[in-house]
């Protein structure tokens, strides 16, 4: 990631006063080589809803795929690099394994990075621009744009000249009935 993400987490001291319990560069950073070198920084995760607000543990210190845990959430920042000259061919199965996703739903997809998660995803483009490919269309997003995604099949493609940084909050959801009728 071009610039480390400063993460501040608040909580309570033993007397019940509000304090910053973490303040520094986020440490759970993964470079997903199979996905063209995109960088994913996990900032926080919960395993339950409503969330436990009493813990002082660093809930980002865990292994995590893309999807949130059952009944939980994930908050991460992903930086999609600008396309490089001579970019390597992408191995779709390796990408999906690296992201902890099932490959079955995207057979014959238009892009090897097509995937979906059983979640509602809030995304805020922090810098750069990116194209979100859907099954038969695409949407161009630029810095300042927001997206609410409801378990849709998609892929991210940076066709620009600069990296694109996006903040994602994923909340576990219920599988929609349409997933069962699609081939």
Any idea what the CATH superfamily is called? Jelly Rolls
Radius of gyration, in angstroms, nearest whole number: 17 Å
Which regions contain 5 or more consecutive residues with pLDDT less than 50? none
Order of helices and strands: EEEEEHEEEEEEH
Q: Helicity level, as a percent range?
A: under 10%
Main features:
six-stranded antiparallel β-sheet; Jelly Rolls; 183 residues; mainly beta; three-stranded antiparallel β-sheet; single chain
Structure, described:
With 183 residues, the chain is mainly β. It has one domain: Jelly Rolls. Helices cover 6% and strands 40% of the residues. The chain contains 2 helices and 11 strands; from the N terminus they run βββββαββββββα. The strands form 3 sheets. It has a 6-stranded antiparallel sheet with strand order 3-4-5-11-6-9, with no helix packed on it. A 3-stranded antiparallel sheet has the order 8-7-10, with no helix packed on it. Strands 1-2 form a two-stranded antiparallel sheet. The model has no long low-confidence stretch (mean pLDDT 88).
